[in-house]
Each structure stands twice: as C-alpha cells, then as structure tokens.
TrEMBL record:
Residues noted as binding substrate in the record, renumbered to the chain: 45, 120
Protein name: Aspartokinase
GO MF, any single term: aspartate kinase activity
Lineage: Bacteria, Pseudomonadati, Pseudomonadota, Gammaproteobacteria, Aeromonadales
Organism the protein comes from: Ruminobacter amylophilus
Family affiliation: Belongs to the aspartokinase family.
Length: 458
C-alpha cells in the first residue's frame, strides 16, 4: 500500500446517524482513507465522566444512563436495529451501569478510564455498522491492541516505539483489505488496563496512528468548523478560516487553547512530516486548513487563542535571593506530580507561574492536590489565584520586529493584565487576565490585529 490517509471524526461528527452518514461519505469519497479514528458521540464522554465519579446516587445514575441510552439507541433505531450490533450495544450499556454502581463503592482512576472508554467503543461499533450497511468492507479494530501508554490514568503518555511496532504488525496489514474503524482517546498500559490520553485526545490518537502506520500521507481532523480559524468563531463571529498554517503556529494555537486540535496532535505529524488537514464533516465542500512544515505566508499576527480555567501560583521566599537551585526544587515537585507549568515569570524573591486547572485530565479533577501544596509550602509561601484566562497571540517573528508590544497592548488598554510572557518563542505572546475580561481582550485583539486592514508593524 502506498498512500494512506487517516481520518478522525470528533464528537459532533458522530453525534447521530445522519452525522455518521456524512462521515461515511467523506471516508468513501477518498480511496486512500483506510483508517478511521472516532471520538465518542457528542455528550457521551461527559456523561461517562459523571457516571465514573463515584459520587452519584442511584437516581442520578439512572438519569445519566437514560441520556446515554437515548443517544446510542437513536443511532441504532436509524440503522434499523440490526440484531448483532443491537445486542452488543445493549451489553456495553449494561456493563457501564454495573461499573457506575461499582464506582460508588470503590472508586479509582483506573476504573474511571475503563468507564469513559466505552464512549469510543460504542461509536466505533456503530460506525463500522454504518459503513457495512452501505456496502463497504469495514472492520472494527480495538486500538488498545496497539495504543500502548504508561499508567498515568486520565492523561496517559503514549509509548511511541511500542505503538509503531504494534501498528506495523497488527494494524497495517488490515488496511489492504478493509476500511479500519478504531477508537481515539483510549489506549492500554503494559498489563492491559484501559487508559485515556486526556480530554480531546482523539486528535492525538489519529496523529499517533498516522505516525505509526507506514506510508501515511495525510492526517485529516474532521470536526464542526471548516478549518482552524483566526480565533474561536464562537467567541468572535468575524473570525475566518486560515487556509494554511505551519506546524509551529498550529502547535502554539493548540497549546494555548484552540480546542479545535488537542495540544499534542502536531508532534507526531512533525516527527514524520505528515501534513494535517482540518475541515468540517458537515460542510466538507467549504475546504479547510492545511497544517504543514512550511507555508507561503508568514504573517506577524496569525491568530489569537484563549485558555480558560488557569491557576496562577505565586511562590515567594527570601531564600531565593542569590540562591541556586530554588527553581529546580520547585519544578521537581511539579514533575513528581506530573504537572505541566505553562507561563513563568520571576522577581527577586518570588516566582509566578500558571497551570491548567485540570491539566486536561479525563477525570476533570483539579491537578492541585493537598499533598502537592504541602510540599511547595515546605519551601516557600504559596498564593493561589483562580478564575483566570490565558490569552495568546500567535504569529511569526513577533519578537524580531519593532512595535509588537505597542500594537498588542494599545489594542487592549482597558484590560487588566496580570502576567505577561514573551520572547521564549518568536511565535507567541501570552498574557493572563481575569476570566470576565478575556472575551473582550480576544475580541479587541482580533479586531485590531486580524480583521480588515489590521494595525501594521514594521
Ligand atoms: P471535536 O469534537 O470535533 O474534536 P472540538 O469541540 O474539540 O471538536 O473542537 C472544535 C471547536 O473548537 C469548534 O467548534 C470551536 O468552537 C473551537 N475552537 C477554538 N478555537 C478555534 C479556532 N482557532 N479555530 C476553530 N475552532 C476553534
Ligand atoms: N471523547 C473524548 C472527549 O470528549 C475524546 C475526544 O473527543 O477527543 O474528551
Ligand atoms: Mg476535540
């Protein structure tokens, strides 16, 4: 097989039977699309996270189960309730109910991952049936046989070499004869327990599989918007799709909150130099965005992104003055708890840094545990500020031209800026603002720097 294309469809794209038929058309229109990666149907993962929490009473479990059954049954109904798949989905729903009841008694992160994985299992079973019922040769594949991860339940890290070997031996041979349908988001550890890659992780799964299968020519991310926009079109209606963008810019956008791509998606694509396409499964004719190593245009200001739910930690200690190793100690504590620090600034006796409230873990819990705080407090005074948002301006060569700061900050002169990070990369300028001022900051930056005749700089 020479050219293989991996197509990933997100939750809204597989929300119901009609949406699945749109996806089927996209898949079958391109004979190179041999591997399909799916999210759970829209709303399903949220319901499963609640069912896995262990904190619901019986009535609340039943209420969530009813909603879940309604989503799955409506697809089955439109398929004409074929016997075998109907029995399979019913069995899976029954298992979810049992596990949710078990979570009330005994709850842990491994069980949460096991429960939330059912969303992708069910959507892929149903979509395989959709393709087969339309006369195509489709095969359901349990991605856990190849998607090896560590055991960090809720946000597991993939083990690239193991995935590459598994995909070559067990997945690639199937692509000669079938359209293979498999799950995003989920994986398994060395002893076969189900893990998840973190919320929104199906994009990452598609990129990892694209990297792992020999001859992958493109990774397509089909979602509910026709491409990567200059900002979230839900926030700013004037936002427009970007026809092409570099890997570096797309990675910065995803990292700083453009939900259209999971932040890790670009890394596997970069490693193998595989172009990534983002388009709308509902309106494929509108085209989309190509993410590539190089693009013709390299504007100073490309896009603006928003990441909500940020925590600002200010760590203060007189021992910092002229001391070596203070930051090393602090960061070793964050590393021990698997927490990624985003922005950082320092002064003579204090360090301010930001972290993401959930770190995008699948279980939705705060990453700031009491033990972590106790360890930090043994070194320094700790102040915690919540209710903050990170605003990131993404572009090219921003720190290499005069006037970037003036152009950016004069656009938002009535916004209170809590922290600024600039200069580590030529691709971004980030700052922290109170949550309630974030939409205004995004709209003003977009208006001044990305619409019509944007403010130009030299
Ligand atoms: P899926 O379920 O297909 O993975 P997501 O909801 O995760 O879809 O991502 C798509 C959403 O990302 C869009 O509906 C849009 O609101 C949001 N989004 C945020 N930033 C951007 C952006 N810069 N361009 C396009 N969409 C964005
Ligand atoms: N279903 C998972 C979630 O909702 C993964 C994904 O959609 O990418 O987070
Ligand atoms: Mg997504």
């Amino acid at each position: 097989m020479n050219q293989v294309c991996v197509a990933k469809f997100g939750g809204t794209s597989v929300a119901n039977y009609q949406a699945m038929c749109n996806c089927a058309k996209i898949v079958t229109n391109n004979p190179n699309t041999k591997l399909v990666v799916l999210s759970a149907s829209a709303g399903v993962t949220n319901l499963l996270v609640e069912l896995a929490s262990g904190s619901l009473d019986q009535a609340s479990i039943e209420q969530r189960m009813e909603k879940l059954c309604a989503i799955e049954n409506s697809i089955l109904d439109d398929l004409g309730r074929p016997e075998a798949i109907t029995a399979e989905i019913e069995k899976l729903l029954h298992e979810i109910r049992e596990l949710a009841n078990h979570a009330i008694i005994e709850h842990d992160d491994a069980l949460t991952d096991r429960i939330v994985s059912f969303g992708e299992i069910m959507s892929t079973k149903l979509f395989t049936e959709v393709l087969n019922s339309l006369g195509y040769k489709a095969k359901w594949f349990d991605v856990r046989t190849v998607m090896r991860t560590d055991s960090h339940f809720g946000k597991a890290a993939p083990i690239i070499e193991v995935i590459a070997n598994g995909a070559k031996e067990q997945l690639a041979p199937l692509l000669d004869d079938y359209i293979v349908v498999t799950q995003g988001f989920i994986g398994s550890n060395a002893i076969g327990q189900t893990t998840t890659l973190g919320r929104g992780g199906s994009d990452y799964s598609a990129a990892l599989l694209g990297e792992a299968i020999p001859g992958c020519a493109a990774i397509e991310i089909w979602t509910d918007v026709p491409g990567i926009y200059t900002t979230d079109p839900r926030l700013v209606p004037e936002a427009h799709a970007i026809p092409e963008i570099t890997f570096s810019e797309a990675a910065e956008m995803a990292t700083f909150g453009a939900k259209v791509l999971h932040p890790a998606t670009i890394f596997p694509a970069v490693r193998k130099n595989i172009p990534v396409f983002v388009g709308s499964s509902k309106e494929p004719e509108k085209g989309g965005t190509w993410v590539r190593k190089e693009t013709n245009s390299k504007p100073t200001f490309r896009a603006v992104a928003l990441r909500k739910n940020q925590i600002l930690l200010t760590l203060q200690s007189p021992n910092m003055i002229g001391a070596c190793g203070f930051l090393a100690n602090i960061f070793s504590i964050f590393a021990k708890y698997g927490i990624s620090v985003d922005l950082i600034t320092t002064s003579e006796v204090s360090v301010a840094l930001t972290i993401d409230y959930t770190g995008s873990q699948s279980n939705g819990k705060s990453v700031l545990s009491e033990q972590l705080l106790q360890e930090l407090k043994s070194f320094c005074r700790v102040r915690i500020d919540e209710g903050l948002s990170l605003v990131a301006l993404i572009g090219n060569g921003m720190s290499q031209v005069s006037g970037t700061g003036a152009a950016v900050f004069s656009s938002i002169c009535d916004v209170n800026i809590r922290m600024i990070c600039y200069g580590a990369s030529t691709h971004n300028l980030c700052f922290l603002v109170n949550e309630d001022q974030a939409p205004k900051a995004i709209a003003q930056l977009h208006h001044k720097l990305l619409e019509g005749n944007p403010t130009s700089i030299k």
